[in-house]
Amino acid sequence: MKELLSQDPEITVVASASNGLEAFELCREFKPDIVIMDVRMPECSGIDGTRLIKTHMPDIKVIMFTTFEDQDYITEAVKYGAEGYILKDSGQEHIRMVIKSVYKGYPVFHKKALDSMAQSISGSKTEKAEINLSPIEKEILRLVVEGRSNKQIGCVLGLSEGRVKNILSELFEKTNTRDRTQLAVFAVRNDLVD
């Protein structure tokens, strides 16, 4: 991972840790913008490391690096404040896109992780919310679930960034959500995206 990230001129790797506690200590020393945290590490897991980092340094963004089998861990990591996750078999471009999106403040989660989080939040299958969405709202919702930024959404749909923000505000109101992560979970839980 360090080698891959070092190839991108926009990304600087400042340290590497072998467990969650070491990651926490390195964060105190280097104050990075983003930590890529492996879920399964010896001694102090990535979940515990995430909890430590987000408790003491909430401005540092944490992206979990994991296999799909770690869904329960992902839900727990999100509970502690992780802003995204990358599957270990992801391509180089996808990994860079996730890092840059999270850096800009846009959480990125795989649709299946959102399914898992939605299940966890709802506790059980409940009735789906009935919300009438325009085609453009549905398309923006789909792109939010993919982890796209407002600028990327605007580019894909031919809309200004300001228009995208306005539509997102309307979506937050319609779905009674406060942020992009809640909106994405709501969309998946209610089958509003394919």
Automatic annotation (TrEMBL):
Start and end residues of each HTH luxR-type domain: 126-191
SMART domains per the UniProt record, alphabetical: HTH_LUXR (SM00421), REC (SM00448)
Domain of life, per lineage: Bacteria
Chain positions with 4-aspartylphosphate modification: D38
Biological processes annotated in GO: phosphorelay signal transduction system; regulation of DNA-templated transcription
CDD domains in the cross-refs: LuxR_C_like, REC_NarL-like
Response regulatory domain ranges (all copies): 1-103
Cross-referenced Gene3D superfamilies: 3.40.50.2300
Keyword terms, alphabetized: DNA-binding, Phosphoprotein, Transcription, Transcription regulation
One term of GO molecular function: DNA binding
Keyword match Zinc-finger: no
Alphabetized InterPro entries for the sequence: CheY-like_superfamily, NreC/VraR/RcsB-like_REC, Sig_transdc_resp-reg_C-effctor, Sig_transdc_resp-reg_receiver, Tscrpt_reg_LuxR_C, WalR-like
PROSITE patterns reported in the protein's UniProt record: HTH_LUXR_2 (PS50043), RESPONSE_REGULATORY (PS50110)
Its biological purpose: May play the central regulatory role in sporulation. It may be an element of the effector pathway responsible for the activation of sporulation genes in response to nutritional stress. Spo0A may act in concert with spo0H (a sigma factor) to control the expression of some genes that are critical to the sporulation process.
Listed name of the protein: Stage 0 sporulation protein A homolog
Native source species: Thermoclostridium stercorarium (strain ATCC 35414 / DSM 8532 / NCIMB 11754)
